[in-house]
Design goal:
about 35% helix; alpha+beta; three-stranded antiparallel beta sheet; 3 helices; elongated
Length: about 80
């Protein structure tokens, strides 16, 4: 099964999970959001090493993983 991108929390985000991870007392007040606005992490392996790359959107992270899979399957 291929890995999927995962969303990374952000101290600038106002969603419930980010409020817990980054409390307003230490990271400042911000307006509440229903959806997280943090970046996306794409995890992959090259040469047996685990690597990751952070991208601004899920579409970009998914496209990046697709290119790494194509490169791996071509060899």
């Amino acid at each position: 099964m291929a890995p999927e991108p995962e969303q990374v929390g952000s101290p600038k985000c106002g969603c419930h999970d980010c409020y817990i991870d980054y409390p307003p007392e230490t990271h400042g007040e911000r307006p509440p959001n229903s959806a997280c606005v943090g970046p996306w992490r794409a995890r992959y392996r090259t040469g047996g090493k685990h690597r990751s790359k952070t991208l601004p959107s899920r579409a970009e992270a998914t496209a990046f993983l697709a290119t790494t899979r194509r490169g791996r399957n071509a060899s």
